[in-house]
Design a protein that fits this description.
There is one protein chain. The chain is an alpha/beta fold. The chain folds into three domains: 48-95; 124-264, Nucleotidyltransferase, domain 5 (2-Layer Sandwich); 269-303, no CATH class. The chain has helices at residues 11-30, 48-58, 68-78, 86-95, 165-178, 199-208, 224-234, 246-262, 274-278, and strands spanning 124-133, 140-148, 154-160, 187-190, 211-214. Strand 1 (124-133) and strand 2 (140-148) form a beta hairpin. The longest helix has 20 residues, at 11-30. The protein is elongated and about 90 Å long.
Amino acid sequence: MKVHLGPAYDPGLLHRVSEVVRIGKLRGLLQPAPAPRERRPRRQALTPADREQVLALLHEERFVDLPPAQGWAQVLDAGPVPPCSIRTLYRVLAATAQVHERRHQLRHPVYRKPELLATGPNQVWSWDITQLRGPVKWTSYYLYVLLDIFSRYVVGWLLARQESAALATVLIGESCARQHIAPDQLIIHADRGPSMTSQPVALLLATLGVVPSHSRPQVSDDNPFSEAQFKTLKYRPDFPDRFGAYEDAESFCQRFFPWYNREHCHGALGLMTPHDIHYGLCGFVGPDPLGRSDHPLAYTFLL
């Protein structure tokens, strides 16, 4: 029995083949791209004279207020064969910009994104309302929270059994009095909820000399500071799935907000507490405990 062996393996064969392939690719890249071929008109395509005839037909008094399909059907019922198909009628009209939406379409204007800058406390506040689920389905309690976006300090909160613009005015008025807000000092930002855009709140802000600011319509993330604070609230280990009663929710808030203001080391504040930032109690701390002089938390704020 004879065994047929293949040719001996040539180590340089693979290298030569790859060189040929590479040179072929380079030649293909260096060659100029072929000129695009002119598209031949179809034999059944309309000539310019035919297009003018179609436009003249559609511009007749009897067809001027009808859709092209209706005009095409009436021409066919009258006896003569229509000059083209219904789709071609639309193509001819579109080529001359005579096809458009006749109904008034709702077009939302481009709203400018709110940009508020706070260089110190009591310059810009953010407020919102969140629901805390009650003991049974379809029952909830409404938590109103006013937050200083510079220090993340909760300047006021209120828990109620319903959402009301009157309660919002009480919270805003008492918080401004407690923080000694002067006219034209403060901007209060909120979303476009019914209480935020209500007339009582607008009149109160105008009386206090506070500038209102609102999120853009149909935009849900223009109030990020309040939403982040609500996430911290609801991600606490002792936050229940449902509160057994109004008193339970109130007791939880009475424990949470002092902890948040005075003990919570906020990541956006260099791990300082909102209370210290808000009242200027944080100064130069010194180097990082691990000796990293370039660490972002090596030095804190000096107010």
